[in-house]
Every structure is written in C-alpha cells, then in structure tokens.
Write a structure and sequence with these properties.
This protein is mainly α and 354 residues long. The chain has a single domain, classed as NCX, central ion-binding region (A middle domain of Talin 1, Up-down Bundle), CATH 1.20.1420.30. It contains 17 helices and 4 strands. The strands form 2 sheets. Strands 1-4 form a two-stranded antiparallel sheet. The longest helix has 34 residues.
Length: 354
C-alpha cells in the first residue's frame, strides 16, 4: 500500500505532494482527536486501564515493523537497525520533549514501569557486543518484547486505579465509582449513537481501531508526500532536508503525545512514549534478524546505542519525579539536536525514524 501511495503522490509532482501533505496532516489530526475520545470512553465503560489501552493502540509501531521487514528483505539490515534506534530517540527527543515544552504535566507511573522503560535499551547491549546478530538473537528480542508488554498490561489490570490518579481525568473519578464528565470527555457526535446501546465500551473500542487505521493511512500520506517534496526541492542530502523529513515522519507520535496531554489525559501520551520505545529496541530490532543476519557497525556500539541508553535513562528519571517540567523538555530536545550534529559531523549520517 505504501508503494502504491508513493507512486501516486510522485506522479502528482511537487505541488500535488504539498496538497497530500496538507490532507495527511488534517486527516492525522482528526483521527488522533477521535482516538483519544474513543479510548477514553472505552476505558471508562469497560472499567479497564486507559494506560494499558494506550500501550496496545499506540505503542506498537506497525509501520516501523513493516519497514524493517522490507529493508531486511532488501539486504539493508543496517538501515533497518538505524530506523529502530532513530525511532526510539525521536520518541523521546522530539515527541516527549515537545509535550513537556508545550504543556508541562503530572506523571503517575509505578516504579517498575519506569525501570523497564529505562533498562529496555540495555537489553540490546549484549546482542550488540556479539558483533553479528542471527535468527536466534531475533527470537530472543521478540520474546523480550512479548514478555515486557505482557507484564505491563497484566500489571495494569491488577491496579486499583485504572487511570493516573493525579491527572484531570483521574480527579473526576469519584470514590464511589461514579464519573462526572471531564473536559477530556466533552460531548462528540458519536455519543448520540453509541450512548444508548448495550455494551458501549466494545463499540468505542471498535471505533478506536478505525481511528488507528486512519492514523496509519495519514502517516503513509505524510511519508510519501514528504519524500517527494524533499526530493523536489533537492534537500535530501542536506541537514535541513533530513530534519524536515524526520519531523514529518514522527508527526504521528508527536500528535499522539501532545494532544492527550493538552486534553488532560497524559496517560495516553505517556503510554505512547513508553510503548514505542520498548517496542523499538526489542520487537522491532528482533524482527530485523528474523529474515537475515545483521552485522553491527562500530558506530552503533560507540555512539548510537549509548545515546539511546543515556537519553532513555534521563527521560525515565524525569518521569519518576512525578511531573514532566518545561526545562525537562528543553534538555531532552537539546540533547537530540546535539546528537544530530555529532552524528552528521563525525559519523556522516543519522538514523531516520518512520
């Protein structure tokens, strides 16, 4: 599907690609807004964890998995690994940083969740030290991904508080189980259709699936349009071109983090960040080795992976403090910019996420 979309957009020229970018941005914004509304209603109606739903719906980077498989099949395993590491860095250095800068927000995450988040990149270290990764290593990383996500979801179902206690939504949940309507649940047109039906929670969950499909399709439009625009203006070999491309390719995660924070349900945004990083450094890397062996370059061991480890650990420390502040965002974003500059000047390139 991505190939078909890219071919269509390319045939429209630069002007058509710009229009596709606009359409993709509008569609993505609408679908993200709908996903937030649907997930929040589903969590409250089904009395399950909104954080767990956020991890499942936004943490799995399906498009990155497909891209990793395609690159691996085309003997571009190094590029696939770079994409996985680049995604992990961009989720923290762009999406989480922007969310904190735009609107600082409270965080209520159990210590074991924060520890898993901080230690996840370290799982790659023994594999990278091996030098050449094989099918067996891929199975081990995919297994680590399944165990990690399974643990998080199981723990969420055991918690007494299904949402962050100190968020706007959490404060609206009364001690007797009653719920007033917070700002995050401001009325939408679908309420008139779904509200009176039996088992509305499952209907909201089904609508969330359709919203997620719309987000993936909108991301494909953004990716195809951005590539054509960057190529058309001759920016593909410049720092600016790479920066523009990366911003566009991570726009989906930016929206899935910033919008929930803005609407008072940061558990969706934090679930997206934690889930995406965990998936990128375990399942996504593991998928690469399922098709072919991967020889680790020296720059991964000496620079790219250490950067992921340090930035993730720093973000985990900020999350553990109970509130993500504006200066946290500036620091994380600044480290990401420094990483780019060093990578381009010293190593001649940066892993591009998307």
């Amino acid at each position: 599907m991505e190939g078909v979309i890219h071919g269509f957009v390319e045939a429209q020229g630069v002007t058509g690609a710009i229009l596709v970018l606009v359409a993709g941005g509008v569609l993505l914004t609408v679908c993200v807004e709908k996903l937030i509304s649907y997930l929040t209603r589903a969590a409250l109606e089904l009395k399950i964890s909104l954080f767990a739903l956020a991890i499942v719906f936004t943490g799995f980077e399906f498009d990155d998995t497909v891209l990793a498989l395609v690159l691996s099949a085309g003997d571009l395993e190094g590029a696939a690994l770079g994409t996985a590491l680049g995604t992990g860095l961009a989720i923290i250095g762009v999406t989480l940083a922007l969310a904190a800068i735009i609107k600082p927000f409270p965080v209520d995450i159990p210590p074991d969740y924060v520890a898993l988040f901080a230690l996840a990149p370290l799982l790659l270290l023994p594999f990278v030290l091996v030098g050449t990764l094989t099918f067996v290593h891929g199975l081990a990383l995919v297994g680590a991904f399944v165990l990690t996500f399974g643990y998080l979801i199981a723990r969420e179902y055991q918690r007494d508080t299904p949402v962050f206690r100190n968020t706007e939504l959490g404060e609206e949940i009364q001690a007797d189980g009653g719920i007033t309507v917070p700002e995050a649940l401001s009325e939408i047109s679908e309420d008139q259709i779904v509200g009176g039906r039996s088992d509305p929670g499952w209907i909201w969950l089904s609508l969330a699936v359709f919203a997620l499909i719309g987000i993936v399709f909108a991301s494909m439009l953004l990716e195809a349009g951005s590539e054509v625009v960057v190529d058309g203006f001759g920016l593909e070999e410049t720092v600016f071109g790479a920066t523009v491309l990366t911003v566009l390719l991570t726009f989906e995660d930016v929206m899935l983090t910033i919008e929930p924070v803005r609407r008072g349900v940061p558990e969706i945004g934090v679930g997206n960040v934690i889930g995406s990083v965990l998936f990128s450094v375990t399942g996504n890397v593991g998928v690469i080795m399922l098709l072919s062996d991967l020889e680790i370059s020296r720059s991964v061991l000496t620079f790219h992976l250490p950067t992921v480890i340090v930035v993730t650990a720093l973000a985990a420390y900020f999350l553990s403090e109970g509130e993500l502040k504006r200066w946290h965002g500036f620091l994380l974003g600044g480290l990401y910019v420094v990483y780019w500059l060093i990578a381009i000047v010293v190593f001649g390139g940066v892993p591009i996420s998307g």
